[in-house]
Each structure stands twice: as C-alpha cells, then as structure tokens.
Design goal:
The protein is an alpha+beta fold. It has one domain. It is 31% helix and 15% strand. The protein contains three helices and two strands, in the order H-H-E-E-H. The chain has a two-stranded antiparallel ribbon with strand order 1-2. Strand 1 and strand 2 form a beta hairpin.
Length: 87
C-alpha cells in the first residue's frame, strides 16, 4: 500500500521503529486518530488470532501522533493511561 510513500521512506530513511500500545483497542483508536488527521496508515490483522488488529504502519509524518508511545520492549512499561487521547 502507498507505494509513493514507501519509495520516499526507503530512499531517505529505511528505518523502522517498533512502538507499543496497551491493547488492540488502543491500537484501533490510534489508527483512527491517524486517519482523522489524514495521515496514511496500513493496518495488519492476524488471521491466526481471529483477524485481530496486531500492528499499524504509519507514514513518517505521523511522528507527532506517535511520539508519546514507548519503544517495544523498551524500559518503560506500557500503561493504558499513557494512550488516553494525546496529541
């Protein structure tokens, strides 16, 4: 999806940052907030988990929306209160 954004990202950065959210509901809300801001996001659903939403890939311009999230397996634990309507 979004081949023009992928090509720009691949040539300028080619870096992925893995962030954590508390649960599927928080991930869904984050994706919806990105869409509401007209940011590109690609959602990933896991068929082995009943098609649950398990990940989202956000365009680089979404950095402000995502900046409050901890790194996946980072030092700070994910807390459900961390994701309450920020940005």
């Amino acid at each position: 999806m979004h081949p023009e954004v992928f090509a720009r990202w691949h040539s300028s950065s080619n870096t992925l940052v893995l962030l954590a959210v508390p649960d599927e509901c928080a991930l869904h809300e984050l994706c919806e907030r990105a869409v509401a801001r007209r940011l590109l996001v690609t959602r990933f659903h896991e068929p082995d988990l009943g098609w649950s939403l398990t990940a989202g890939a956000f365009e680089p311009e979404a950095h402000r929306l995502l900046s409050h999230l901890p790194l996946l397996n980072g030092r700070r634990e994910v807390n459900k209160d961390d994701n309450k309507h920020r940005a």
